[in-house]
Amino acid sequence: MNPIPDYLQNDLSILFVGFNPSIRSGETGHHFANPNNRFWKILFEAGLTPRKFQASEDYKLLELGYGMTNIVSRPTKAADEITKEEYENGRIMLREKITKFSPKIVCFVGKGVYQQYSKKKSIPWGRQDESVVLGTIDFVAPSSSGLVRMKLEDIIDIYRKLPKLLDEIS
Q1: Contacts made by residues 155-164, CB under 8 angstroms, sequence distance 24+
Q2: Could you tell me if residue 35 is inside a domain?
Q3: In terms of CB atoms within 10 Å, which of 17, 49, 152, 158 comes out highest?
Q4: What is the dihedral of CA 85, 108, 77, 63, to 10 degrees?
Q5: What is the pLDDT of residues 13-39, one digit of tens each?
Q6: What's the CATH number where 83 sits?
Q7: Which residues lie closer than 8 Å to 157 by C-beta, 6 or more apart?
Q8: Amino acid 80: pLDDT
C-alpha cells in the first residue's frame, strides 16, 4: 500500500501532523479517510473550516493555509504497528519538513505523535512552552480517532484554541 501525499507549502498557518495513515487512507489516498475518524467534523466544529470537508477534499486545506503530513508514512491498522525505527526516521523527516516549510503552528493530532516527535513524556494539551523547531509553535491536540475516549465536545474545545492562537500571532 502506498503512502498518501503530504500537503505542504511555505508559510502555512497550521500544519496538522498525524501518527500515520489508516488502511482506509492508504486505500483512498486521502488523510483521515476512516469513517470513524472525526477529524473533518472537529475542524468544522472548532471554526477552522467554513464547512465540513470530506476526506477526498483534503488537498483543499492548502487553500485555507493548512497543511497535512504524518510522522510515519506507512499505512497501518493501528499505531501500535509502527516500529521504533519508523518513528525515529519519521521524527527526523518531520523536523526537516517543519524547518523547510516554516508553518506558524504545528498541530500534533494526538499526544503520542508529539511524544514520539519531541521525546517528551509529560505534555499538556494546547500550546507547548518550547517548540522543537525555532520559529514555529508546537500545539498538541487530541487524536481525532473514534477510539479516543474523550468527549467529542472536549476535543473540539481544544481545537478551538487554534483560531484564537492564529489571531494572537498574526
Answers
A1: 155/38, 155/42, 156/42, 156/45, 156/46, 158/125, 158/126, 159/42, 159/43, 159/45, 159/46, 159/48, 160/46, 160/47, 161/126, 161/127, 162/14, 162/46, 162/48, 162/105, 162/107, 163/46, 163/47, 163/48
A2: yes
A3: 17
A4: -120
A5: 999 999 999 999 999 999 999 999 999
A6: 3.40.470.10
A7: none
A8: 85
The sign one gets for the Cα dihedral 107, 30, 19, 125 is positive
Average pLDDT score, the chain: 95
Domain count, the chain: 1
- CA-to-CA distance for 162 and 133, rounded, in angstroms? 18
Query: How do residues 109-141 score in pLDDT, each as one tens digit?
Result: 999 999 999 999 999 999 999 999 999 999 999
Q: Is residue 41 part of a domain?
A: yes
SS3 137: strand
Is 3 part of any domain?
A: no
Contact 38, 146 (CB under 8 A): yes
C-alpha angle 133-104-91 in degrees, rounded to nearest 5: 35
Query: Exposure of 6 by Cβ count < 10 A (0-12 exposed, 13-18 middle, 19+ buried)?
Result: middle
Among residues 75, 100, 83, 81, the alpha carbon closest in space to that of 23 is found at 75
Its domain, for residue 46, covers 14-169
